[in-house]
Specification:
alpha/beta, Rossmann fold, 2 domains, six-stranded parallel β-sheet
Length: 354
C-alpha cells in the first residue's frame, strides 16, 4: 500500500464509498498523477494499493496546521458525505482546511446539498451545464482520460479471442451500472432491432445492478431472452478499473444510452480507445461527442434513434474508420487527464497560498 505520512499531506481527496463508481474511478486515476506535483493523498475504506493514501483513522489526529507556510490543507470532496466530513474536521476539530467540492449534478439540488455547498471555499463544476445548476460561482474543470491506459489495441482480433469474444463481426458495447437512469433497457431494445438483420454482430452489456435494481436487471434479461437474443446480447460481470480498457478496445461502437447523467466518463474512455460513440443528449455528452465526427447524438429514451444512429455508422466501414481516428484525436487534444490534473493542482495551490 502506498501510505503517505499524514503530516506532509497538503491535499486530501476523500472517497467514502466502498463500491466502484465514477467518483472512485476519478480519484484512483487523478491522485497518483497529481502526487507528482503536490503532496496529495486519498483516504477511504477501500483504495487500490498504488494510490497515495492515508488511513481514515488518521484524520482525527491530523495536525491542526498543514505542512506549508500558510498552514492550510485542502479537502477535496466529491459527495455530500465527504463535504460533511470536511466540515466536521474544519469546524468541530478545528483543522486548518480549505474545502473544495466538485459537482457533476445536472438537476436541482436538495436543500442539504445547497447548504453544504455554501460552506465550501471553492466549487468545481464538471461542465457548463452543471455550473448552471449551482447557486454560486464555480470553476468549470472537465474530466480527462489517461490516454496511455486507454488506447487502441494493436491486435484487436487477438484481444477478442483472449476475452472469449468472436474475432469477426461487429461488437457494440454499453458499460456501467445496470439501472433505469442509465438507459440499459433502452440499449437492449435498440440492439434487439439492430441485430435482427446483422447475424455477425454482438452486443455487450457490462456492469452490475445493486440490490435496488436487481429486479430491473431480471426483467431486462427476460426481455432479451423472449426476443431470442440471449446469445447475441451478452450480459457480462463488472470488471476492475484496470481491466476495463481492454473491453473498450474490442468494440466497433460504444453506446451511452443514459436517461440522466451527471458527467459520464464512459464515452471518453471509449473514444480514447479509438471507438466512436452514440450518446444521448444528457450530462456532458454533447460537449464530449462531436456530432458526425466522433459519433452521433440522439434524444434520450429513444431506442429507435439509437438503433438508426448505430446502423448508419456500422454500415459504412470507411466512415467508421475515420470516426475511430477522430475519436482518439479528440480525447488526446481536449480531454487528457494531465490537463484535468494540472488545472486542479493550480486551484489547490491558489487556496493553499491564501
Amino acid at each position: 500500500m502506498s501510505t503517505v505520512d499524514p503530516a506532509r499531506v497538503e491535499v486530501i481527496a476523500p472517497n467514502f464509498k466502498r463500491r466502484l463508481s465514477g467518483v472512485t474511478a476519478t480519484i484512483v486515476r487523478l491522485v497518483p498523477l497529481q502526487a507528482g506535483e503536490i503532496a496529495i493523498a486519498a483516504t477511504g475504506p477501500e483504495l487500490p494499493d498504488h494510490v497515495p493514501q492515508i488511513a481514515l483513522s488518521a484524520l482525527p489526529a491530523l495536525s491542526r496546521r498543514g505542512p506549508g507556510p500558510s498552514g492550510w490543507r485542502v479537502w477535496h470532496a466529491r459527495r455530500n458525505v465527504e463535504m460533511i466530513g470536511g466540515l466536521v474536521l474544519r469546524d468541530l476539530l478545528r483543522k486548518r482546511l480549505k474545502l473544495v467540492f466538485t459537482s457533476a449534478s445536472q438537476r436541482e439540488q436538495s436543500w442539504l446539498t445547497r447548504w453544504l455547498i455554501r460552506r465550501m471555499d471553492a466549487v468545481v463544476a464538471t461542465s457548463e451545464r452543471t455550473a448552471a445548476y449551482l447557486e454560486g460561482p464555480s470553476q468549470v474543470i472537465m474530466h480527462g482520460i489517461d490516454t496511455e491506459a486507454f488506447a487502441p489495441s494493436g491486435d484487436r482480433g487477438a484481444l477478442r479471442r483472449g476475452l472469449d469474444l468472436p474475432d469477426d463481426g461487429q461488437l457494440i458495447g454499453c458499460y456501467g451500472r445496470i439501472r433505469e437512469s442509465k438507459g440499459t433497457d433502452v440499449f437492449a431494445e435498440a440492439m434487439i432491432g439492430l441485430l435482427a438483420d446483422r447475424p455477425n454482430a454482438v452486443a455487450l452489456i457490462m456492469g452490475r445492478a445493486v440490490k435496488a435494481h436487481e429486479g430491473f436487471e431480471r426483467d431486462l434479461r427476460t426481455r432479451v431472452a423472449d426476443a431470442g437474443m440471449e446469445n447475441r446480447i451478452r450480459f457480462l460481470p463488472e470488471v476492475a478499473t484496470h481491466e476495463i480498457a481492454d473491453w473498450y478496445r474490442v468494440l466497433d461502437l460504444y453506446v451511452a444510452p443514459q436517461r440522466w447523467e451527471g458527467f459520464g466518463l464512459t464515452p471518453l474512455e471509449a473514444m480514447a480507445c479509438g471507438v466512436p460513440v452514440v450518446a444521448t443528449r444528457v450530462g456532458a455528452f454533447e460537449a464530449l461527442v462531436a456530432e458526425g465526427e466522433t459519433g452521433a447524438l440522439v434524444p434520450p429514451d429513444n431506442p429507435e434513434a439509437i438503433r438508426d444512429a448505430c446502423a448508419a455508422i456500422l454500415d459504412e466501414p470507411e466512415r467508421l474508420a475515420v470516426m475511430s481516428e477522430a475519436a482518439r484525436r479528440r480525447v488526446e487534444h481536449q480531454f487528457s487527464i494531465e490537463k484535468e490534473a494540472a488545472t486542479l493542482v493550480s486551484l489547490y495551490r491558489r487556496l493553499l497560498s491564501n
